[in-house]
Amino acid sequence: MLDQIHLLAAVTVLGVLEQAYFFLQVIYARRAFGISPPKISGPPEFERIFRAQVNSSEYFPIFLALLWQAGLFFHQGLAAALGLVYLYARYRYFMGYKASSSER
After folding, report:
1. What is the C-alpha to C-alpha distance for residues 19 and 36, in angstroms, rounded to an integer?
2. How is this protein organized at the quaternary level (predicted)?
3. Alpha-carbon distance 30 to 28, whole Å?
């Protein structure tokens, strides 16, 4: 059974690490701009980082469900490859959203 899910598990772990990175970015931004929880408003730079993290975490459960269903019922390798593409795209989204609109 393990040989049938090792790629899916690896992509899942990478996804969790990516989410942790996004969470840490919000923590660093809170410290840099002096915004203590539960406040979610502040300078535009903070709000962009916060919003990008929230957007990413909202779609993470859907990503995991689709990844595992596709991997278990169709093809593990293809599902894992598409999962890596999604994670890369989500990282690019986060970094783009984080940048000011004049820098995009």
Report:
1. 20
2. Homotrimer. Interacts with ALOX5AP and ALOX5.
3. 5
Residues designated catalytic: 31, 104
Neighbours of 30 (CB within 10 A): 18
Residue 4, amino acid = Q
- 73: phi then psi, degrees, rounded to nearest 5: -100, -15
The two structure tokens encoding residue 72: 């278990």
Per-residue tokens: 26:
């919000």
Instruction: Give pLDDT tens digits for 72-103.
Output: 999 999 999 999 999 999 999 999 999 877 76
Longest dimension (CA), the chain: 50
Q: Check if the beta carbon of residue 24 is closer than 8 Å to that of residue 87.
A: no
Q: Do you know the residue count of the chain? A: 104
